[in-house]
Amino acid sequence: MRVMFLGDVVGRSGRRIVVERLPGLIVDLALDFVVVNGENAAGGFGITEEIARDLIDAGADAITLGNHAFDQREALVFIERQPKLLRPVNYPAGTPGRGAGLYMARNGARVLVVNVMGRIYMDPLDDPFAAMEREIAACPLGEQADAVIVDVHAEATSEKQAMGHLLDGRASLVVGTHTHVPTADHQILPHGTAFQSDVGMCGDYDGVIGMDKDEPLHRFTTKIGRARFEPANGEATLCGVVVDVDEVSGLATTIEPIRLGGRLAPAMPRF
Ligand SMILES: [Fe+2]
Ligand SMILES: [Fe+2]
């Protein structure tokens, strides 16, 4: 089976490229399952119910979030009625919504998706490694799940790589999000888990991690805020990975980056 993961959708330009291109990509690449990180979809901060619906209508089978999960306060409510929306699993007990879901792919496979957040250089949540051990134990690959996709939303590359190795052989794909810049280390780890430290964003790369560059530059140079952060609204690059998963073992056989539109060098999976 073939799965695609798209990195953090940032603002209007990020939403536009995903909504425009995802339906065609699902057909052209014969995708069985698509995960999209939507934590920055609403003006760069969080997600609304309408935007979640737009991403799902475009073909997202699950939407993961991160530290911006609840920036739009309505998400605290509608996440309870949107089973395809996941927030980090290691939020405190009692946080609205869920951090893991088991979904049916287009080929009939059962896909476990887990969203987990790192702690280094972030507002720390519960231990992400212990949380992942619990989630994988509750729904193991090859038993209750035919594929396992993990979004590690974290700042530190080291923490994301460590998570990849912890789950190597027990997940189909472990992919990093949050830093909004695609790394060139996509690979299949020794025990069969596809991995990339950061998948990049779906947003305008003529900015500072998807935001209009004026305010970040002002704050870095003067240390005084002048305005709100606004998403950069130039043409977005869609960034993600496409992974082939063995239908018997649930492990990855291929991982290829995909980059379309905007400013980054294009990449298209060679299948
Ligand atoms: Fe993000
Ligand atoms: Fe984030």
TrEMBL record:
Tagged with keyword Metal-binding: yes
Source species, domain of life: Bacteria
Positions bound to Fe cation 1: 8, 39-40, 180
Active site per database record: 68 (proton donor)
Chain positions recorded as Fe cation 2 binding sites: 39, 67, 153, 178
Entry coiled-coil feature ranges: none
MF terms (GO), sorted A to Z: 2',3'-cyclic-nucleotide 3'-phosphodiesterase activity; metal ion binding
Keywords for this protein: Hydrolase, Iron, Metal-binding
Family, similarity comment: Belongs to the YmdB-like family.
Protein name as annotated: TIGR00282 family metallophosphoesterase
Species name: Siculibacillus lacustris
